[in-house]
Design goal:
- The chain has 436 residues and is of the alpha/beta class.
- The protein folds into 2 domains: 95 residues, Aspartate Aminotransferase, domain 1 (Alpha-Beta Complex), CATH 3.90.1150; 246 residues, 3-Layer(aba) Sandwich (Aspartate Aminotransferase, domain 2).
- Strand 2 and strand 3 form a beta hairpin.
- Helix 4 runs parallel beside helix 10 and helix 11 packs parallel to helix 14.
- 52% of the residues are buried.
């Protein structure tokens, strides 16, 4: 089924892809299952815009799920990648690019003394949990409802039967015994977290949390949540992993949990630090990081870890991010927030809430504020689907899921406001049930 504007070349590409790729895609959210219709196949990106295989242009508010903070094909990153590629794609040996990018990260992140590069955010969190288990001699993990920390077995857990302590696998193929080591608490409820921790205090190795939740839509921490969580975890002898795969270098230069009162032992990074190429990283205090092989007993390895092309892209990206960059991101995101609020009011949308932290935001079709996963789930998914397709037909590419974050880049700016406004007017009319 195709919804909205016809895209014949994209439709043919999808039919062909489904004969080879599972579901025609390599990541489920790209399939458009959450919003209906067929996915749009892109052939190019430049600055703030994507161009699909049918030649249609879109103001991109996904930006590879936050990775392309400088926009698509930024000149400094392209130059760095071109130079790296000419020297070779991968060597399987140490390169100076690894410690040079690591030095940039350490200088920018107060809680990081050592870094280990991997190839994805999933690997980063999986490794951080392994280090914490080795450090504490305990096995259990506490995560929060609606938090996504990659697709490793132990973290694909959700609360079952309404009880935070009873978890069930969030995916087929994950043994119940594995997710039985994972406890789930409600996000932004420090008292519920403390109660769960007290019940299992001698078993909990680590608490994993996004300082700003970004995978149930954007949900910021309420005052006191991150400080209370950090204090309680450390008093119980557990380590704290701040999952900053999304927020790291996105909201500010470096990590964000410190400014929100969090106290991390280990931090995971990704997205921005790869400049658009596959990368992840674990960082933290030397006493914990040096548990990794070859210094310590915790094994971790990766053939393409620290890939020289990804390191070059990441270094060029971080070098291009200045205080002016973050001020620009804030101004752009704030102006977009105002446009969406104005058009929602114009359309008479009553149950609407836009939540934004810096350059990441989410439109919820429900009363706000949204403070936890239960609140996020009240967002009207059918309304979002109509909104999404009308926006798409009018040249704005949003996340094809109601519970994800939108992002702007430094390539996005005032000249893009008219495009957003036209699309938003159509989008909210469609969400309200009118024509687009």
């Amino acid at each position: 089924m195709t919804r909205g504007t016809a895209r014949p070349v994209s439709a043919r590409a999808f039919r062909r892809a489904r004969r080879t790729l599972v579901g025609g895609v390599d990541s489920p959210v790209r399939s458009f299952r959450a919003v209906g219709g067929d996915p749009v196949f892109m052939r190019a990106g430049r600055g703030a815009y994507l161009t699909d295989v049918d030649g249609r242009r879109y103001l991109d508010l996904v930006h590879s799920w936050g990775a392309t903070i400088l926009g698509h094909a930024p000149r400094p990153v392209v130059r760095a990648v071109e130079a790296a590629v000419k020297r070779g794609l991968t060597y399987g040996t140490p390169t100076v690019g690894e410690h040079e990018l690591g030095e940039r990260i350490v200088r920018a992140c107060p809680s990081i003394e050592r870094v280990r590069f991997v190839s994805s955010g999933t690997e980063a969190v999986m490794t951080a949990v392994r280090v914490a288990r080795a450090a504490t001699g305990r096995s259990k993990v506490i995560k929060f409802e609606g938090g996504y920390h990659g697709h490793s077995d132990g973290l694909l857990a959700k609360a079952g039967s309404g009880a935070a302590t009873h978890t069930v696998p969030d995916s087929a193929g994950v043994p119940a015994a594995i997710v039985g080591e994972t406890l789930v608490a409600p996000y932004n409820d420090v008292e519920a977290f403390r109660a769960l921790l007290d019940e299992h205090a001698d078993e909990v190795a680590v608490v994993v949390v996004e300082p700003v939740a970004g995978n149930m839509g954007v949900v910021p921490p309420v005052p006191g949540f991150l400080p209370g969580l950090s204090q309680a975890a450390h008093e119980a002898g557990a380590l704290v992993v701040m999952d900053e795969v999304i927020t790291g270098f996105r909201l500010r230069r470096g990590t964000s949990h410190e400014t929100l009162g969090g106290n991390a032992d280990l931090v995971t990074l990704g997205k921005v630090i790869g400049g658009g190429l596959p990368v992840g990283a674990i960082g933290g205090r030397a006493r914990w990081m040096d548990l990794l092989a070859p210094e310590g007993p915790v094994y971790q390895a990766g053939t393409l870890a620290g890939n020289p092309v990804a390191m070059a892209a990441g270094a060029a990206t971080l070098d291009a991010l200045t205080p002016t960059s973050y001020r620009q991101l804030e101004r752009t995101a704030a102006s977009f927030e105002r446009v969406l609020a104005e058009e929602a009011e114009r359309a008479g949308i009553e149950r609407y809430c836009l939540q934004r932290v810096g350059s990441m935001s989410t439109v919820f079709f429900c009363a706000g504020p949204v403070v936890d996963f239960a609140g996020a789930q009240r967002s009207d998914r059918k309304r979002y689907a109509r909104f999404f397709h009308a926006m798409l037909d009018h040249g704005v590419y949003l996340p094809p899921s109601p519970l994800e974050s939108s992002f702007v880049s430094t390539a996005t700016g005032p000249r893009d406001v008219p495009t957003l406004r036209r699309a938003a007017r159509a989008g909210f009319a469609a969400a309200q049930g009118g024509s687009s």
